[in-house]
What does this fold into?
Amino acid sequence: MPIRKALIIGGGIGGLCAAIALRQKGVETHLIEKQETPKGQGIGIIHQTNAVLAEAALGVADEVLRQGWGFAGGRVHNQAGQLLYEIPAPAGLPEGLPADMGITRSRLTAILLSRTKTLGTKITTGTTAQVIDNTSDSATVRFSNGDSDSYDLVVGADGIYSDLRQRLWGEQYRAIFSGQGGWRLNIPRPEELEHVWLYLRSDGPNCGLMPLANDLAYMWCTSNEQSAGWKDNADLPNEMNNLVKDVGGLYGELRERHLIGGADIIYRPFEYVDLPKPWHKGSVVLIGDAAHASTAHLAQGAAMAMEDAVVLGEEVAAGGAAPDVLQRWENRRYKKCVWVAETSLKLCLNEQGRLNEPGFDALTQMIEGRKRAMAPT
Ligand SMILES: Cc1cc2nc3c(=O)[nH]c(=O)nc-3n(C[C@H](O)[C@H](O)[C@H](O)COP(=O)(O)OP(=O)(O)OC[C@H]3O[C@@H](n4cnc5c(N)ncnc54)[C@H](O)[C@@H]3O)c2cc1C
It folds into this structure.
């Protein structure tokens, strides 16, 4: 039976994009989100060209550009702040779109949510799926609010700690701690910061700067950590300052200005998901972080979730029942997503001195990563 009606579980970037992509192909869509209001945290997100192209396909690229910051390529510096390399922009982009964009997560979520509503997806918040009777013909779902319904397709976009993955694939597929965490802070955009600026440090963890809007940017760094706990305490500015105290150039200036008491820093551990294929069972498919969460080292996690959604829309439109559609979807997505996740993890382990791969060069891998992520899927 062709797919006419779909449930999307999770209203993050992947789930909202899936609702848009399926609705654009005429599928009746219902999205559930466990939070009362879908919202992204205020820190920003980098969109490289493949994310920009996915947003164009979803009809939101112009609005993301209007509310965010468009640019092309970036700069790589050494720890002292000297320029090592200029990252080029890929050629052949659609007219009027930049190669790269930055935007805050809250603005991106609001844009995706608005498009989802405009296209007519039914949205139920504060709700989870409690029981799923999943067959290759359909899935019948009972919700935490007492309702139930049947769907031709269920899209699991419930993120790195996916409840659906653990229930249908098994408890063993939990998020795995990588040995690192990420520190992020919103700051006013310095005038000269027009691209992503990366600082490669001789002693391991990296850091950088990213424009998010005309008046906004963010600074980040990674750190090697003993455990997977989240940090949230008054000492975070001091801790982050210590981690990057030897970084020079513009980053050093901004550190002195902004990494001071009261700075609103968000820290989270880097985790990943290693789920073997198939990423679909019966009428259920996992997309985004639920299927293939990666550490943030290639800045590709959200881009992969967006591409998952666009390709799912295309394969549903190409016709067939869920098992065939989902197999074709996986054939197009698996290799690329796994490559992104594996390469991100190598970069992460390399920063920790734990990668046993002689000749591995982080800069070469990042440039290669950017090229391969741009390849059609
Ligand atoms: C520090 C850091 C920096 C990053 N930077 C970038 C970047 O610059 N560029 C990039 O492309 N990627 C980046 N990423 C990766 C990116 O954030 C993720 O890959 C992306 O958010 C995944 O989207 P998702 O929709 O799959 O999951 P999520 O965004 O986690 O969304 C999952 C949604 O499901 C909801 N949910 C959870 N459980 C349930 C349930 N049982 N029922 C209903 N709803 C549920 C959640 O509330 C949430 O709204 C970064 C990640 C980190 C950690």
In short: Residues 9-15, 32-35, 38, 45-46, 51, 128, 157-160, 163, 182, 268, 288-290, 296, 299-303, 305 surround flavin-adenine dinucleotide (CB under 6 Å). DSSP finds eleven helices and 19 strands in the chain.
